[in-house]
Amino acid sequence: MRIILIDDDQLVTLSLKTILESTGSVQVLANGTSGAEAIALYQQWKPDVLLLDIQMPNGSGLDAGEQILQQDPNARILFLTTFSDDAYIAKALELGAKGYLLKQDFAGIVPALEAVMQGQHVFGEQVVSCFSKQFKKKSTFDYAKYDITEKEQEIIAQVAKGYSNKEIAAALCFSEGTIRNYLSSILEKLQLRDRTQLAVYYYHHQMDV
Fold it and tell me: With a threshold of 0.70, does the pTM exceed it?
């Protein structure tokens, strides 16, 4: 797995590089200390995953991530930060990031990278708690006007909780192919791009099923 590591704390960068490369499955192609470097290095190397801090000089990680995703919507960006701020998490989700982790969870970084490579989105429990509170509303959204069925609502709830297609299929007694078809239909109906946006949509409209 080829990654680029961006963090303005060089001690953190060196520690992470050592930890990640010690697994034998991760190659750190380059590292930088600013949002501007993140953009330049991504364009140069086109890594499998960009591991990106948020608060940095010369362009924040969020600004850099937004620009990179505008140029390459398939970019895999995993934010790694010490900040569990609601606004940061909300912005990262809206941008289409593949995940948001806290630096305190060093042991979870490699599994998170592997999950992202498998097409999953990764958000720790603390992060999920933060953005669910951020988007919680008093009113209930009417999904019926978008022709979303009860079964599709149930699948949306499962996606928002971070479950994979395989886990959702097992819980609902469907095949993974069926779940993929359901998700494609749901995304089309709601005019959303991916699972991350669907999770944001769910919490934004406080749908309880």
Answer: no
